[in-house]
Design the sequence.
C-alpha cells in the first residue's frame, strides 16, 4: 500500500519538479585546516591567555583577524642565586633589619628533699626553691614534679668477700621489682677491670633481665692473712730446691720474720663507673640517667682517676646512687672509712661520687635491707623536683660551674648535684 501511494505521487509530479527533485545536492565546503602554533622561541611581548603573544583579537561581521604588534625584546633575566648564598642586605625599599645572635645555656637540676627522718617531702612549689650558680641567684624557668623514666646502669662489685657476696647474689632478684615497664636497665660488674654483662640497655621488665643478673653472681674473694714465718711461710712451692716464683722468697713481697707485707687488693670502682657512664651518655636526655652501685666503696688499681670520672659524670648529667655493703655499712666504721689516708687504698670512694652528683647512699648489712634499698632509691630517683634556669655564664667556656639549691623551709635536707661542666647538649 505504501509503495503504491509513493508511485502514484511521483507520477502526479510535473517533469520540472521531478527534475529538481532528482538534482544532486551541492557539495559541503571543507572545514579550515588547523594551523601550527607559533613557537615560544619566536614569541614577542607578553603572553596572554586565549590571545597569544603581542596580538589583539578584532571582529567585523562574520570574519575575524589577528593583528600582531611588535614589542621590544625583554632584557635577559638575572641568573638565580646559588643555593649556598645568604642574603645579608635587606630588600630594596625595606629598612635594614637588626640581626640577633643568642646562645642560650639551659641547665636542668634534679632535686631531692627529705625531712629529718629521711622521708621524701612532697607538695613544695617553685616559690620554695632558690638556686644559685657561682654565688649568683638564677630565676627559675622550669619547675616540674612529673616522674621521669629511668635509664639505670647497675654496677655490681665482684671483689667483695664471699659472705657479703652471697647476700648480694641473693638480693639481685629484687632489682627488677623496683622498676617499671617504662624504665630500662644495663648491668655491669667489676673486680679487676669492668665488664658489660648486658651488652646494652634492655627493658626493665623484659625476661632478659633475670638472666643477665644471674651472670653477675660470683663466689667473691677470700680474706687471707699473710704468712711470713714458719713452715708455711716464704716459698712453699719449690722445684729442685729452688723457689718457683722468686717474688715469694723471704724478704721480698711475702715479707719475713721481721716485717709483714700485706697483699695488695684490687677494687676497680672507677673503671666500673666509667664504663657504665659511657653507656648512659648515649641515652635520650629526656630520661633520668642513673648509675646504681652495689659495693663496699673500696677503690684500688683502676686505670681511670676519680677526677676524670667525676668530670665525665657532671658533663653528661649522670647521678650516682649506691648501696653500701660489707665493712663500710657498719655503724661508725662506715663514716671512718670515708677518710682517706695518703699512700693507702680508698676505703669508701663511693660516698664522694654520690655527694657530688646529687645521688644518695644507703648502708645495709643484711639481705632484707639490701633488697629494700633497691626500691627505696629507685623511688627517690624517679620522684624528684626538676628545676631549670638559664645560665648567665659565657657560652660553653669549659669551666666548672658551682650550683647551690636552697629551700625556704627549716629542717629539710636538700640533695642536688654540686655543679656541672657545660656541654653542647645544653644549647637551645
Sequence:
Amino acid at each position: 500500500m505504501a509503495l503504491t501511494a509513493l508511485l502514484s505521487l511521483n507520477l502526479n509530479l510535473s517533469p520540472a519538479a521531478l527534475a529538481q527533485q532528482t538534482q544532486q545536492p551541492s557539495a559541503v565546503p571543507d572545514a579550515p585546516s588547523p594551523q601550527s602554533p607559533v613557537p615560544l622561541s619566536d614569541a614577542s611581548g607578553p603572553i596572554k591567555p586565549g590571545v597569544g603573544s603581542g596580538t589583539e583579537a578584532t571582529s567585523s561581521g562574520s570574519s575575524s583577524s589577528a593583528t600582531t604588534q611588535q614589542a621590544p625584546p625583554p632584557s635577559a633575566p638575572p641568573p638565580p642565586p646559588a643555593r649556598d648564598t645568604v642574603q645579608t642586605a635587606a630588600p630594596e625599599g625595606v629598612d635594614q633589619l637588626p640581626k640577633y645572635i643568642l646562645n642560650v645555656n639551659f641547665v636542668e637540676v634534679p632535686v631531692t628533699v627529705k625531712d629529718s627522718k629521711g622521708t621524701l617531702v612532697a607538695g613544695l612549689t617553685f616559690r620554695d626553691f632558690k638556686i644559685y650558680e657561682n654565688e649568683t641567684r638564677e630565676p627559675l624557668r622550669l619547675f616540674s614534679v612529673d616522674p621521669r623514666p629511668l635509664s639505670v646502669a647497675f654496677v655490681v662489685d665482684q671483689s667483695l668477700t664471699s659472705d657479703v657476696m652471697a647476700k648480694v647474689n641473693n638480693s639481685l632478684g629484687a632489682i627488677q621489682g623496683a622498676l617499671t615497664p617504662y624504665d630500662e636497665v644495663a648491668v655491669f660488674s667489676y673486680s679487676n677491670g669492668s665488664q658489660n654483662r648486658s651488652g646494652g640497655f634492655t627493658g626493665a621488665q623484659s625476661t632478659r633481665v633475670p638472666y643477665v643478673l644471674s651472670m653477675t653472681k660470683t663466689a667473691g674473694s677470700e680474706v687471707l692473712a699473710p704468712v711470713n714465718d714458719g713452715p708455711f711461710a716464704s716459698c712453699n712451692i719449690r722445684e729442685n730446691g729452688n723457689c718457683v716464683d722468686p717474688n715469694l722468697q723471704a724478704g721480698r713481697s711475702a715479707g719475713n720474720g721481721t716485717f709483714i707485707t700485706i697483699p695488695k687488693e684490687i677494687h676497680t670502682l672507677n673503671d666500673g663507673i666509667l664504663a657504665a657512664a659511657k653507656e648512659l651518655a648515649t641515652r635520650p636526655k629526656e630520661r633520668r640517667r642513673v648509675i646504681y652501685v652495689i659495693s663496699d666503696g673500696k677503690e684500688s688499681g683502676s686505670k681511670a682517676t676519680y677526677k676524670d670520672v667525676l668530670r665525665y659524670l657532671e658533663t653528661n648529667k649522670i647521678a650516682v646512687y649506691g648501696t653500701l655493703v660489707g665493712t663500710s655499712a657498719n655503724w661508725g666504721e662506715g663514716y671512718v672509712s670515708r677518710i682517706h689516708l695518703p699512700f693507702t687504698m680508698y676505703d669508701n670512694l663511693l660516698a664522694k661520687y654520690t655527694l657530688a652528683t646529687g645521688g644518695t647512699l644507703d648502708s645495709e648489712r643484711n639481705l632484707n635491707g639490701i633488697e629494700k634499698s633497691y626500691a627505696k632509691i629507685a623511688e627517690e630517683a624517679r620522684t624528684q623536683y626538676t628545676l631549670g634556669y638559664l645560665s648567665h655564664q659565657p657560652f660553653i667556656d669549659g669551666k666548672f660551674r658551682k650550683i647551690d639549691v636552697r629551700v625556704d623551709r627549716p629542717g629539710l635536707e636538700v640533695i642536688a648535684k654540686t655543679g656541672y661542666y657545660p656541654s653542647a647538649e645544653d644549647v637551645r
Notes: Residues 225-262 form one domain.
